[in-house]
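Subject: Sanity check before I submit

Could someone independently write out the structure tokens for this chain? I want to compare against mine line by line before I put it in a report. The sequence has 209 residues.
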Amino acid sequence: MKKYLSVNKQAYNTLAKQYAARLPEYEQRDTELIGPFIEYLNGKFKEVKILELGPGSGLALRFFEKAGFGTTAIEIAEEIINNAQVISPKTTFINDDFLTHNFMDQKYQGIFAKAFIHLFPKVDAQAVIVKIHDLLSPNGAFFITTTLHSKPMEGYKGKADYSDSPPRFRKRWTEMELMESLGNKWKIMDKNYNQERGKNWIALTLVKK
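---
Independent answer below. Compare away.
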């Protein structure tokens, strides 16, 4: 396992209980944020299989379960999985690195990656985007969020808005850099700018061309 993945695995195992405790704080906001993604999938497909990359508290998976979607999540931190399983008991959880995991011939109608892409160096993040495109069925949807910054930067830094502030790898994206890395294989169905804990975020619902 690459060093940055090992560091992030340890950080999120440490932070898992805090993620679970913050679930009520995000419930209403995420209902609105994720709404266009769920509506598109419900309107486009008779049967929907969702893959979430990094499930956090399990809140989004619970939304997807309520929508009648089949849910799978992949996560490197075991404690994140342990907590998310309580919130989304119908989900299949995979304890592995997304980039190296073999999904065989499985295809998904939706892939959900909230606060995930910035956990990779740019070169690996671009590989993540390519793999997501490959895993989606025709007209499948990709939901992505990240914080926006005025200058690109990457490296190790403590997660200051959580206690203990464990170090983790973090990529800071500008909007232009992110859109260039996404490339021209997507149709933008929804774009949302919002603030969370003093940070500026972008949320995109993209449809595979």
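---
OP: Matches mine. For the report I'm noting this point. The chain has a mean pLDDT of 95.
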